[in-house]
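As a warm-up, study this chain.
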Amino acid sequence: MSTGPGTVDLPPVYLVDASVYIFRAWYSMPDEFVNTRGEPTNAVYGFLGFLCTLLEQTGTRHLAVAFDESLTTNFRNEIYPQYKANRDPAPEDLKRQFSWARSAAEAMGLRCFADSRFEADDVIGTLAEYWRSMGHPICVVTADKDLAQLVGENDHWWDFSRNQKLNAKQLTEKFGVLPEQMVDFLALTGDAVDNIPGVPGVGPKSACALLGHFGDLDQIYQRLDEVQHLGVRGARSLQKKLADNREAAELARRLTAIDTAVESALSSPGLERSEIDQEHLNRVFDELAFGGMLRQRCLRA
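Now compare it with the structure written out below.
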């Protein structure tokens, strides 16, 4: 994004959804990664390897790592107590690794963020809005489709592990709706992963057809009589489903919309990388019983 005639383009800001990559490492890395107390360290090892690769590939000094601290205490649970209630609590062996992962990332000079009332998505959304307003393009590093709603014209959504780095147009091709329509798409279809019901009987194809024709959820309900005339299978019954479940759709939209005004993130939004704290990093690596190869890579990245 150019900031004006004769100015240099500002560098992209990378916003990392830590949970995606810690969970992925937890399930994919071998169980034999343990420290001297026999505590698993595989998720940290895989996560740090991912961070090193990301830093090596991008060369960026503008990066933030967002962690989830509010899985049972965030504002969405206040709105809808069943939010994410379908998920089993993380085992202690994994919770411990989240703490180590953050400590190691901070020792690498990376800004880490978390909030007790807001999810990592909201922190990322807040930082995205802030840095976009400063003229920086945004790259959200995640595999979560919810975060597609943050992608603007000059931004990217990057599923790093699958090597899918998509701009707004490519996201529309992938999901069938514009990035800014993703909230209403999820409001219609629901999100089983987060235990959000949406409108029963409305699947992705119907949601795409509805949003392609009407634009957003408000227009769908303002022009509900038109739904029966859409050229989609079961249009008449679709109209009734929408009418009977309006409250559910509007609730789902409140739950899936990312908050972009998290005060804790805005109070200190700077994210330029600082110098590596080698002493701190060595202490963490000694506790985790990691060898020299990853240690040196983290120090060089």
